[in-house]
Inverse folding.
């Protein structure tokens, strides 16, 4: 009995120790460790709720496009001009004096050729029209003919859709799409202090004098008059039909029969008669972007049968 009694406290002690270990384990397994992060509200029971609820704040932080006119102008630094508000004006002579260098005739001619040969921006047909108009102004002549030359250049530029709001070719030249074409002084006109080298006065063909040219014109006119009166024999192989597109009308090109050996100035007179132009209107002829010289034939200036010739009506 005494041994049984002595075992009883030991059993109770073991049971008590087991119970304590179970309580400790239970407490550890059920206890919640404190979190270093603040608790979040999950009232909706949806994990996306906190993200959605923060969207309005983030949207408010996104900068919205400004409607300020100055900001919009920064996006369009090269705004095309409204050509309806900048109508073209009559061309004005450009007079200037060179301050940086001395120009000779040979130098300025070479620089002009190089300028047009190196254009890589803009439309080629517009550059060609500008060059053709300038060639009319470069031709020079008597001072009383300046108005006629300016009018011719104006017609050429107008036909190409070129707008010059100031009338000065060195300031603002625009095509029909609003693109700008910049022209330096030396391209538009000669400086007033151009150095002219003395040269022998010769005709355009380089071997006949002015008096010889006048006699040649008289011979041509006499020959034309004899043909008209039927006193001269005209061979069919000597004649050709040319087509001339006149700038003052929207009709198809005018077809005129001329002699292949006729000079351009004689052909021009024939076209004036066929077009029934009244004085002071007259015609200047151009082919492939270049003004035709009056003292040469069409073939001598590169014209090919069937090609259309441009006839600019002036006056």
């Amino acid at each position: 009995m005494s041994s049984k009694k002595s075992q009883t406290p030991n059993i109770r002690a073991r049971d008590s120790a087991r119970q304590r270990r179970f309580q400790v384990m239970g407490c550890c397994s059920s206890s919640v460790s404190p979190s270093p992060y603040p608790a979040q509200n999950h009232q909706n029971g949806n994990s996306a709720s906190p993200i959605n609820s923060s969207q309005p704040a983030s949207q408010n932080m996104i900068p919205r496009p400004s409607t300020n006119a100055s900001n919009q102008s920064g996006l369009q630094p090269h705004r095309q001009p409204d050509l309806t508000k900048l109508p073209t004006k009559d061309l004005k002579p450009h007079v200037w004096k060179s301050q940086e260098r001395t120009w000779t005739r040979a130098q300025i001619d070479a620089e002009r050729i190089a300028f047009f040969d190196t254009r890589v921006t803009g439309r080629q047909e517009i550059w060609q029209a500008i060059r053709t108009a300038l060639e009319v102004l470069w031709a020079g002549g008597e001072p009383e003919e300046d108005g006629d030359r300016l009018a011719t250049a104006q017609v050429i530029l107008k036909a190409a859709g070129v707008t010059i709001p100031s009338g000065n070719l060195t300031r603002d030249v625009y095509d029909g799409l609003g693109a700008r074409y910049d022209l330096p002084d030396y391209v538009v006109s000669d400086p007033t202090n151009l150095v002219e080298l003395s040269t022998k006065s010769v005709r355009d063909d380089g071997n006949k004098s002015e008096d010889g040219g006048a006699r040649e014109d008289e011979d041509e006119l006499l020959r034309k008059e004899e043909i008209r009166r039927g006193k001269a024999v005209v061979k069919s192989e000597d004649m050709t039909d040319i087509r001339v597109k006149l700038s003052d009308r929207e009709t198809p090109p005018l077809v005129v029969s001329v002699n292949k050996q006729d000079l351009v100035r004689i052909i021009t007179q024939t076209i004036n008669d066929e077009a029934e132009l009244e004085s002071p209107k007259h015609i200047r002829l151009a082919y492939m972007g270049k003004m035709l010289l009056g003292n040469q034939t069409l073939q001598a200036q590169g014209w090919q049968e069937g090609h259309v010739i441009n006839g600019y009506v002036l006056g």
User: Anything to note?
Assistant: Residues 80-188 form one domain. The longest strand covers residues 239-246.
